[in-house]
Amino acid sequence: MNEGDDRSGLSSRRTVLKESAALLLGGATGATAVTALGASPAASASADVPPLPWKWVRLDPLEAGRRAYRFYRTKGGCGTASYLSLLSLLKEKAGHPWTTLPDMMMAHAAAGFGGHGTLCGALAGASTIINLATYTGKSDEQQNNQIIDRLFWWYAEQDFPTERFDDLSPLKKQVKVRAMSPLCHTSVSKWTVAAGATIKSDAKIERCSKVAGEVAYTVTLALNEFFDGKWKPPVWKPDKEVWHCVGCHGPDAALAPQKAMNWNQQGHMDCLMCHADHTKAAAR
Ligand code: HEC
Ligand code: HEC
User: Fold this and answer.
1) Among the atoms of ligand 1, which is closest to the Cα of residue 241?
2) pLDDT tens, position by position, 89-128
3) Which residues pair with 177 in a beta bridge?
4) Which of 120, 123, 127, 192 has a 20 to 30 A CA-CA distance from 135?
5) Could you tell me if the CB of 118 is within 6 A of ligand 2?
6) Pocket test for ligand 2, best of 180, 184, 275 (most atoms within 8 A of CB)
């Protein structure tokens, strides 16, 4: 493609953007006209729903895990499993404002969001609840992010599935494989290869139900401890091989003796899953 093509592509895209912006504007004007007749929807919504963080109450981790295990099959996968296990308990034990949330809000997170294999939906569903319960909006309180970051790291290090929910499962003591990353694709594919299973097989569905259960169980434990003032953020301490990458590539300031390449990476995943170690001659 030459430069001219590119530019004409851009300008036609701009025209489309302008037109859709005009459409949006028209829509907004219409909405204003409607609301002028009655109560403002925005005002009544903010009166009903308090600002974050929303009140957490002590929940039973095992009950949360068992619900997640069951919801995986009955509610269409991992995103709803972890989210709704926690939410249904919060609706029962804490009530409002949790009762304002729709049950199927995280349905799209199944299979790594829309089947895309990105973040494990069980982590996605649970982290939504973590954020609602711990976000304060204060820049010096990053507890919501910290709990989620450590949850993802914990997940990557687990040998899934655990046997915690085997009493509910027709398939007990399944093959265990380390997830290696919070990505659905890696976590699932490493396991199906080792287990000789397919994505549609009962064994895989059981495995992922148990993963959702274990995530809901662990998050409930962590949040109970957090609100009891007992939660100590586990220090992120990856293997030596990964530790040394971050020492140069950041962004964990305390670890970094130098800033290689202006710190153009972020993240706490296992670097060696995707990169070779260029500091070792053999990798070149
Ligand atoms: C001693 C500091 C240091 C360490 C340790 C280090 N890097 Fe680098 N890295 C650099 C510098 C400086 C560059 C840019 C210069 C270059 O290309 O060699 C770079 C370049 C890169 C690049 C882009 C170029 C390429 O070679 O692909 C990637 C990706 C990368 N590093 C990943 C890693 C990973 C993964 C690790 C750990 C296994 C790691 N680095 C360890 C300093 C370091
Ligand atoms: C899921 C795969 C994946 C993981 C895990 C991962 N990276 Fe990357 N990283 C990439 C891809 C893809 C790129 C962009 C292509 C490239 O330049 O290699 C990239 C780019 C980079 C770059 C910039 C390279 C450049 O040429 O500018 C650095 C530095 C880097 N990664 C370091 C790391 C470090 C350190 C870790 C671990 C903390 C890590 N990456 C984990 C896939 C990954």
Assistant:
1) 38
2) 999 999 999 999 999 999 999 999 999 999 999 999 999 9
3) 160
4) 120
5) no
6) 275
